[in-house]
Design a protein that fits this description.
Two copies of one chain form a homodimer. Chain A is built from five helices and eight strands. By secondary structure, chain A is α+β, with helices and mostly antiparallel strands. In chain A, strands 3-1-2-4-5-6 form a six-stranded mixed sheet, with helices on both faces. The first copy, chain A, is globular, with a radius of gyration of 24 Å. The N and C termini of chain A lie far apart (108 Å). Chains A and B meet through helix 1, helix 2, strand 4, strand 5 and helix 3 of A and helix 1, helix 2, strand 4, strand 5 and helix 3 of B. Strand 6 of chain A pairs antiparallel with strand 8 of chain B, so a sheet runs across the interface.
Chain lengths: 235, 235
């Protein structure tokens, strides 16, 4: 019978060397209410969204048209925009909330690799209270809708967009969750939005989060000459 | 060859009898902005609409929930209701408009037969300036929506309803046209609403009026427990 084998030599990992430094790159995120000073960024994001959908020729929004139609009433009462900001350094604590109804939402995520943002300069945030590396990464535009059957309001999300280099990190979910949280806070009954029926990945994402896709309903749209004509009917 | 036939004897219609009295019953109509005092009628109309759609068990609107959520901001800025009123006598001239943005729309139609309204007492209008035979016949509820691509608002029609005895007279078209006219007046870009895909009569009616049915889009809805859960996400 052979003698008991000697204990195996310790592998390098089992030596007294210190644990490897945790791998990761922190990215600080903030969702805040947009204001009129964000219109230039929102305008660029809308046009990137139109390009992404291959609908650039249908996009006639200008900084002037956005400025004259957004931010004309208090947030949540009408058209409301949340801005997603990203920074490599922590956001300063909020000394005051912008509005009593909403405090900016900050969150820190850890990335495996740093993100190279080729448009960092273009999308540098205009919030003067923040560091110089804060960039705008996306937005969501929503407004109150109403359910006659529930007898109460909800929110309708018209558009949501995250810039290309920041996708697949959960930021879309963060923006949509911020809208959902605000709806719950205000006692609203629903959050709704529209999706293209062939966008199966998006539909799966929405269904996984608990949303129902209303298969039987179709949106009707009256616009341009037909709208003008219908505004002056003969019974 | 036979002699020329004598001229035919005059028929009774060709005699000197006077023309028959024009047949018809005038019905005077008015579309006006609803106010908080219309909530009891709106509440009953919403429940009739729910019954009509066989969705009564999904209808939880109460007078209290409607009162606390409607008419809390000026018309057209948020949820807005037009009321359709009907009368056998002309409406008095408008001494003043309710709001500078909207003057009630009056129109007279001629019916072949008078309408028997079995609910006339229940739906008697509460407008003190009108005669005693004015009844509420229907409503439309709408609110501003927003197109990021156009960079301007539109109107979304959430629900429209005409009581059974007044259907097929063009009142639905009158209500929808009033919304379209207001959209044009305010420089808005679109009027939108939803229709069930199996409601082929409604779809034909909408397409005949020039509306497009967006076949590829589906509405997503987050509500109840799923909304609550999504409001507190972990990225």
């Amino acid at each position: 019978m052979a003698a008991a084998a000697p204990p195996p030599a310790p592998t390098p990992a089992a030596t007294a060397l210190p644990d490897p430094t945790p791998i990761g790159y922190p990215l600080f995120t903030r969702i805040r209410l947009a204001t009129a000073s964000d219109v230039p960024h929102i305008h660029k994001l809308i046009h990137q969204l139109a390009n992404f959908k291959h609908l650039a020729n249908h996009c006639s929004a200008t900084e002037a048209s956005l400025s004259s139609t957004l931010f004309t009433s208090p947030p949540f009462q009408s058209f409301t925009v949340f801005i997603l900001e990203l920074s490599h350094t922590p956001f300063p604590p909020q000394l005051h909330t912008q509005y009593s109804l909403f405090s900016p939402i900050t969150q820190t995520i850890t990335l495996d690799l740093p993100i190279d943002d080729p448009e960092a300069e273009t999308f540098k945030s205009n919030d003067k209270d923040c560091g110089f590396d804060v960039v705008v990464g996306g937005f969501v535009l929503f407004f109150p809708n109403y359910s006659t059957f529930l007898g109460k309001p909800g929110f309708y999300v018209e558009d949501m967009f995250v810039r290309e280099c920041y996708r697949r990190k959960g930021f879309g979910k963060m923006l949509l969750s911020a809208v959902a949280a605000q709806a719950v806070k205000m006692g609203y009954g629903r959050v709704e939005w529209a999706v293209l029926d062939w966008n199966v990945n998006a539909i799966k994402f929405y269904e996984d989060m608990g949303a129902k896709v209303l298969q039987e309903w179709r949106i009707c749209r009256l616009t341009d000459e037909a709208l003008q004509a219908y505004a002056n009917p003969a019974i």
